[in-house]
Amino acid sequence: MRQKLNPPRQGLVLEVGSGDNPHPRADVLVDRFPGADNRERGGDLVVDRPFVVADAHHLPFKDGAFAYSICSHILEHMDDPVQFARELRRTCKAGYIQSPSEIAERLFHWSFHRWYVNLVGDTLVLHPREPGEPFGELFDYLYEYNPAYYFFQRSMPHLFWVEREWHGEELKVEVRDHSPLPLRDPAALRELTRPRYGPLALTALFLVALIGRAARLGLRQRLRRLLGRNYL
What we know:
Elements: E1 13-16, E2 28-31, E3 51-53, E4 68-72, H1 81-91, E5 94-100, H2 102-107, E6 115-120, E7 123-128, H3 138-145, H4 147-155, H5 157-160, E8 161-167, E9 172-175, H6 186-192, H7 199-214, H8 217-227
Parallel strand pairs: 1-2, 1-4, 2-3, 4-5, 7-9
Antiparallel strand pairs: 5-8, 6-7
Helix pairs in contact: 3-4, 4-7
């Protein structure tokens, strides 16, 4: 999906949990698991710029060291999300967080994730992830190999991803013991399922889905580098 982040042109940008796919704008990378420990990431660690091995709950940087932080698919891994948010506010003036939504978590095979993540207003609301995975890796394979499913998921990004760009003290993270999803409210469900793209955009997206799923991962990685993007 197209990430809605706006890092500044000037100032240091920190990426926490950069893993195998760091963002082109990040100046400094942080990851907890160095070397070949890929238990909580999708591939081998990329170290192509200043890199720090650290626990994101206790970042080894001074207050306000960074102009912006990027945290893509990392919040759901945290042992203590509230402490993690506190460290981001302390070390960064602004930032961007993206996570799989609760709906995505219930469909896909990510057994190493700890939390379901939802956005309620401006607050990231988390509750503990259940251990069961009723669909196994079915949706992982649908997303990778089936252009029709890939098109559907990309056409409804709000159902599958949570995004929050924040500034200063705006970053709010709350842990609850239950889901905030309004799955029994007809009005809320109509809003959740409302199309977000018009006919022309959907047509273009469908063509991209056909081409993108025909291209293997190696080619997509080369295109990411060429286009300066970390998602394609």
